[in-house]
Specification:
alpha+beta; four-stranded antiparallel sheet; 1 helix
C-alpha cells in the first residue's frame, strides 16, 4: 500500500486552513479599523489643542484700550452671551513679541456650521462698515460658552457687566462642548488693569 493522504484528510486540512485565513482576515480588518479611529481622534485632539493654544495666546495679549467703532466707541473687551450673529468675544490685542503680527481688534464666534471662527480686523480702530476677515479655527463644536471673572471674584456671562468693571476681566472661563459629546473647560488668568 502506498503512503499518502485520503480525500477526507485533504478536505479537513483545507477546512482548517480556510478557518485560519478567515480569522486572520477579520483580525487584520479590526486592526485597520482601530488604526483609522485612532488617526481620526488624533486629528481631532490636535485641532482642539491648536485652538486652545491660539485662544490663550490671544487673550493673554488682550490690551485695556477702547476702540473707535462705527462712529462710537467699543470697550477694550466685550463678551456677549447667547448671540447668533455677533461674536461671543471681541477685544483689542497687543502684537505678539515675535513681531509676526500687529496690534489689532479680533473676535471669536461659533457659527451655524458648528465652527469657531476667528475674526480679524486690520487694526485696532474699526472703520464704519469695515468687515473683518473670518477664519475657521475649530470644527465640530456644539457649544462655545465664555464667563468672565470680575473684580469681586464673581463669574459673569457678559463683559463689561457693570460700568465700574475694569477694561479687562481677571480671568476668562472657556467651556467647549464638541459634537462628539466631550466637554472641555479652561480658565485663563488675564493681566487686568
Amino acid at each position: 500500500m502506498k503512503a499518502g493522504f485520503t480525500l477526507i484528510e485533504l478536505l479537513t486540512a483545507l477546512l482548517i486552513l480556510s478557518v485560519l485565513a478567515l480569522m486572520s482576515f477579520r483580525g487584520l480588518g479590526a486592526v485597520l479599523d482601530t488604526r483609522e479611529h485612532v488617526a481620526a481622534e488624533t486629528v481631532k485632539w490636535r485641532s482642539v489643542a491648536s485652538f486652545f493654544a491660539r485662544f490663550e495666546l490671544d487673550v493673554h495679549l488682550a490690551m485695556p484700550r477702547i476702540v473707535r467703532a462705527g462712529g462710537g466707541y467699543a470697550p477694550a473687551l466685550r463678551g456677549i452671551s447667547n448671540s447668533t450673529d455677533l461674536p461671543a468675544l471681541e477685544f483689542s490685542r497687543f502684537a505678539a513679541a515675535e513681531g509676526v503680527d500687529t496690534a489689532r481688534r479680533l473676535a471669536y464666534r461659533l457659527n451655524e456650521k458648528h465652527e469657531i471662527e476667528l475674526w480679524l480686523w486690520p487694526g485696532l480702530d474699526i472703520a464704519p462698515g469695515a468687515v473683518p476677515a473670518r477664519y475657521p479655527l475649530l470644527t465640530g463644536v456644539s457649544r462655545f460658552d465664555l464667563n468672565y471673572l470680575n473684580a469681586g471674584l464673581a463669574w459673569v456671562d457678559v463683559w463689561p457687566a457693570a460700568a465700574t468693571d475694569a477694561a479687562i476681566p481677571r480671568a476668562i472661563q472657556l467651556r467647549l462642548v464638541l459634537s462628539s459629546g466631550e466637554e472641555i473647560v479652561r480658565i485663563i488668568e488675564l493681566k487686568s488693569s
